[in-house]
Amino acid sequence: MSKQIVYTDQAPAPIGPYSQAVKVNGMLFVSGQIASELATSGDIKAETKKVMENIGAILTAAGMDYSNVVKSSIFVKDLNNFGAINDVYGQFFTSEPPARETVEVARLPKDVNVEISVIAV
User: Fold this and answer.
1) pLDDT per residue over 63-107, tens digit each?
2) Closest of 112, 62, 120 to residue 92, by C-alpha
3) Is residue 1 within 8 Å of 24, Cβ to Cβ?
């Protein structure tokens, strides 16, 4: 098994003892990404777009892109934002979108409104 830690300064540095992403045997596991600088803006679309851009930067650092994503997990503070998040999220997966779940949670790191993680191959 070959294990590679993936890091880019084009996405937020980890805020705890974890890696932005880990690549193992051609599979990339991207940690949940947030956009803390936009959390208080009240603009869930801008926050989601920044999260997806962070994921894109990590995918690029690993030699991949959005077409490699096979699974995503979305954690959101308010499920009433589901439609707005989907509008932005869908712009990054225009064909053959990955499998996914969306879960409402009580609280997220740095009080953000949305966190997204992905698995890519």
Assistant:
1) 999 999 999 999 999 999 999 999 999 999 999 999 999 999 999
2) 120
3) yes
CB atoms within 10 A of CB 96: 8
- First-to-last alpha carbon distance for the chain, in angstroms, is 15
Distance CA 113, CA 109 (A): 9
From the CB of residue 9, how many other CB atoms can be counted at a distance below 10 Å? Answer: 9
Q: What predicted TM-score, i.e. pTM, was given to this entire model?
A: 0.97
Give the separation between CA 55 and CA 19, rounded to whole angstroms. 13
CATH, domain range 3-120: 3.30.1330.40
Q: Helix or strand or coil: residue 7?
A: coil
